[in-house]
């Protein structure tokens, strides 16, 4: 495995005067060549050869000047350049600004900024075998440029495929809802599931020099083929929970009413009348519609 080696690069503004001097030297040598040609023509007559050493030296200096210009490059903040010389990794430049390095180095640009990966909706089976749809968003960045460039073919595609694989594995490890006891579920424990996904995904992409900053589930639902059945089940469970609370509250109110009537000696009821009263109160309190009262003009015992 390759490991990142941070190296420095010359400040481009310090190398620029040298390039300018080389350019000026090139012009001076070419001027001397022209003067030698004019002088040879004047002294020796037409057809005399000038001093070609001035021309050769000028061309050499010009080639060096042009060659040095290919060593300049710029780096923005949170950006790096991987330097490769004849197939060998020379190091990574992380210092932003205008820089200069050996023009023979191949300079590969690598962004170190945070990136968002919006995953597609995947259909997976949860722990109980129910088909569910799940999607995630992953925030990641490149931490080791050498691993990202040399140890995987395309690190962006690598992260995408590993995210899909990790999401399938994590989603199949938890039930969608209604876990046994304190069991974590996809629906109720989204933070715990996201944390588990981040941990597993980090292990998968570490070989590519990538760091996972955050993962979040953006979509979670039953698959369309069972969504209707599961919706009816959820509605039935909600109705049962609501009925339980209603009955519990009604029983408490009936107990309070009988207790107050007995303690305050408002009236005395035998067991049969108490049962009738309890039945009537439960019907009134637990009924879905408003009760229609019947006025008793007589007594309770006629």
Mean pLDDT: 83
Q: What is the level 1 CATH name of the largest domain? A: Alpha Beta
Largest sheet: 4 strands, antiparallel
Bulk shape: rod-shaped
Enter the CATH topology name of the largest domain.
Tetrahydropterin Synthase, Chain A
The assigned CATH architecture of the largest domain is: 2-Layer Sandwich
Give the helix/strand class. Answer: alpha+beta
Features of the shown structure:
alpha+beta; Tetrahydropterin Synthase, Chain A; 4-stranded antiparallel beta sheet; 3-stranded antiparallel beta sheet; 7 helices; 10 strands
Summarize the structure.
The protein is of the alpha+beta class.
Could you characterize the architecture of this molecule?
The protein has 302 residues and is an alpha+beta fold. The protein has 3 domains: 10-110, no CATH class; 115-222, 2-Layer Sandwich (Tetrahydropterin Synthase, Chain A); 236-286, no CATH class. The chain has 7 helices and 10 strands. It has helices spanning 12-44, 52-69, 145-150, 155-171, 190-205, 224-263, 271-286, and strands spanning 10-11, 72-75, 79-85, 88-93, 97-100, 106-111, 115-118, 122-125, 131-142, 210-222. Strands 7, 8, 9 and 10 form a 4-stranded antiparallel sheet that branches. α1 (12-44) packs antiparallel against α2 (52-69), α4 crosses α5 and α6 (224-263) packs antiparallel against α7. The protein is rod-shaped and about 150 Å long.
């Amino acid at each position: 495995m390759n490991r990142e080696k941070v190296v420095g690069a010359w400040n481009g503004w310090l190398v620029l005067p040298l390039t300018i001097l080389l350019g000026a030297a090139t012009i001076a040598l070419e001027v001397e060549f022209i003067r030698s040609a004019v002088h040879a023509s004047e002294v020796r007559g037409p057809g005399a050869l000038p001093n070609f050493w001035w021309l050769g030296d000028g061309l050499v200096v010009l080639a060096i000047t042009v060659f040095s210009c290919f060593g300049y490059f710029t780096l923005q903040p949170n950006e790096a350049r991987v330097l490769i010389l004849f197939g060998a990794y020379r190091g990574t430049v992380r210092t932003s600004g205008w820089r200069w390095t050996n023009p023979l180095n191949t300079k590969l640009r690598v962004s170190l900024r945070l990136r968002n990966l919006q995953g597609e909706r995947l259909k997976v089976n949860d722990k109980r075998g129910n088909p569910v749809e799940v999607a995630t968003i992953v925030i990641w960045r490149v931490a080791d440029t050498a691993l990202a460039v040399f140890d995987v073919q395309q690190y962006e595609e690598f992260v995408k495929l590993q995210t899909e694989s990790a999401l399938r594995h994590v989603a199949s490890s938890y039930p969608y809802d209604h876990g046994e006891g304190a069991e974590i579920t996809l629906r109720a424990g989204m933070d715990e599931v996201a944390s588990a996904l981040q941990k597993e995904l980090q292990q998968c992409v570490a070989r590519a020099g990538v760091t996972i900053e955050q993962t979040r589930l953006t979509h979670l639902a039953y698959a369309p083929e069972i969504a209707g059945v599961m919706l009816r089940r959820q509605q039935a469970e909600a109705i049962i929970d609501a009925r339980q609370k209603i009955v519990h509250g009604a029983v408490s109110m009936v107990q309070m009413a009988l207790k107050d009537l007995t303690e305050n000696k408002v009236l005395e009821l035998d067991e049969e009348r108490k049962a009738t009263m309890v039945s009537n109160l439960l019907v009134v309190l637990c009924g879905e519609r408003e009760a229609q009262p019947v006025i008793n003009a007589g007594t309770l015992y006629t």
